[in-house]
Amino acid sequence: MMATRVVGQRIPKIDGPEKASGRAVYTADIRLPGMLWGKVLRSPHPYARIVRVDASKARALPGVRAAITGHDIPFTLVGLRLRDLPVLARDVVRFIGEPVAAVAADDLDVAEAALGLIEVEYEVLEPLLDPLAAMQPGAPLLHPDLLSYECLPPGLPEGVPNVHCYVERRRGDVQAGLAQAELVVESTYSSAMMHQAYLEPHACIVHLDSDGRIHVWATNKSPYRVRRQLAEALGLLEERVVVELVRVGGEFGGKGALMDVPIAYYLARASGRPVRMAMTYSEEFLAGHPRHPLVVTFKTGVARDGAIVAHHALAVYDGGAYGGYKPRLNSVLTGSFELGGCYRIPNVLLQSYTVYTNHLPGGFMRAPGDPQAIFGVESHFDMVARRLGMDPLEFRRKNVLQPGDTAPDGEPWRDIRAAEVLAAIEAASRWGQRGPGHVGRGLALADRHLGGEESQTRVTLFGDGRVQLTTGVPDAGQGAHTAMQQIAAEVLTLPRGRVTIKLGNTDEAPFDPGIGATRHTHIAGQSTYRGALELVRRMRACLAEEMGWPEEEIILSNGAFHCPGHEPVPFEAVARLAVSANGSPVEFLSTYRSPAVEHHAFVAQVAEVEVDPETGAFRVRQLVTAHDAGQLINPMAAEGQVEGGAIQGLGFSVMEEMRLEDGRVTTVNLGDYKVPSVADIPELTTVWLDGQGPLPFGGKAIGEHALVPTAAAIGNAIYDAVGVRLTSTPLTAEKVYAALHSSAEC
Hints:
- The strands form eight sheets. A seven-stranded mixed beta sheet has the order 3-7-1-14-11-12-13, sandwiched between helices. It has a five-stranded mixed beta sheet with strand order 9-17-16-15-10, sandwiched between helices. The protein has a four-stranded mixed beta sheet with strand order 18-26-27-30, sandwiched between helices.
- The chain has 17 helices and 30 strands.
- The two termini are about 45 Å apart.
- By secondary structure, the chain is of the alpha+beta class.
- It is about 25% helix and about 25% strand.
């Protein structure tokens, strides 16, 4: 790693004091004159036709300023990519919790009372609740108009109903490879629905100003995306919409959609007043967009020496009632590309379906689709190793991708460090050690891409030597603003406090795609890094012209510009020169574009688990995680990301489940829906590997990686401890007990 002064330092987040003191302002904290409360009436049925809806009694209630139904607003389908979501259901409801009508009132009590006055008559239909059944020939079509939807992904399979996304990757000849294999192993795994469990529920405010411009405050990670989506939904130019940048109280992938913003707009337009809407946590569980459940089947052929010769994966994600919450261009979950793991396989067929059902719609959660897929992949390959009589680590070491290999689906990857990650996890964990009692260790290996796109940063130099970075990047806790400050201070050789971050709305701040895809230290970091280098270049040119020095000999070091044979000139003095010559602060826009990144970062995790075979109860004693990370911009923030991710992975693994009965979520609060607490956290150890990546100063992304392999590592550790393999998440004591007493996989 290169020597650095600010980058690589353990620096607290710059917004920490504001948040810790309670001074931070979130969407629900904002008050506008004359603001009304908006509330939504939601469907009580998973699937039904709307025969009649009448909001007249609600409109007549004193204090109600607007009440709307799907017939009172233009019929529009919205979505991040695939446009299949109605703003308000008009003719049919497809999940319990779907918005049917909405009201705006002087206060919350009146708004809730008004909802009870809206009359809706339904014709209840038989719901489709099993994604596998929904794909069978003759199954009812939940979206008969699917082929007319905007941004429908290409390549949908013919004759398979209710599929709104299909991905297939081939390499070699799988059937021939399986026929030649000396051992063929098949298994099936499933994962439960999971909520992002952020503390701040979805909220929004919409205000129409005197010029008719629409001002939006929303718990959303992508202000420019909100502006585009809302403008498209309303048939307006984007310039008519202003999205304010506000704090986001956690999001974990779940705050990228419009949610109730269009409803708030129509209520604001009907009432002539600003409208605020905030979901209760029950509404979050009924009408959010959680992590998708998955069922995946594998069939793998291997040689007796352990070499993988063929691998077929068939995955079915339960997409729920709509596909509009998926932000990728083809609406695919990235877990669809992880079904071959990190291994050299000559013959591969990976198939992934996302299917409509009458469950609440799935959306994005950190590493979308990856934890479900890797739970299956790494549990399955662990089983293959055991069937061969091989140590699971040695099996992975034999088959893992090496530098110069392509991914299982044929994609080229750069700087493959999978083997080094395996070596690091072996050295850092107690792998292979046997102790007293029923203690087992499980290993899982995963990779994750690094996201790209375009990001812009406005750089401003003031005459007193201060540098300001203006950004449209929100910060939901990942520390993006702190990283930008550190990067600029490093390049400019300034104390960190001399670089400030300014946030702006979509009128003021330069374009940014929003946080997500483990990309922002990459793209916002690079736009900051290149902007800082450009500022140094301009200051050198100004100094060279002023002093008559050769520009190519001037260097910036330790807060001063140096030229051989001359006294150093402090940064502040050159700033005065540059601003004076410019006639105003020096300001310019730095743009970084990276549509695709071939680097993948690898992560391995070893879980140590102690099991009581009498009851099935188990305790995760240790999680060791090894990361192919390269240069860390901020080790403190990186540790927080990894440890937080590992605990989120622990929740997915052993306790978190949105339980569903007849299409209804029965875990509708954080008392019923269990998330890990301090008492559940095991010993955590993190190992960092050096390397080179596309981030400034040679780093790679880590934000989503630690949560991906956890479920497989724990499941494999349970097998190592007591010899039973669990095939569904969450992994529970009840499942261990049942497997121990039935000699079956659960």
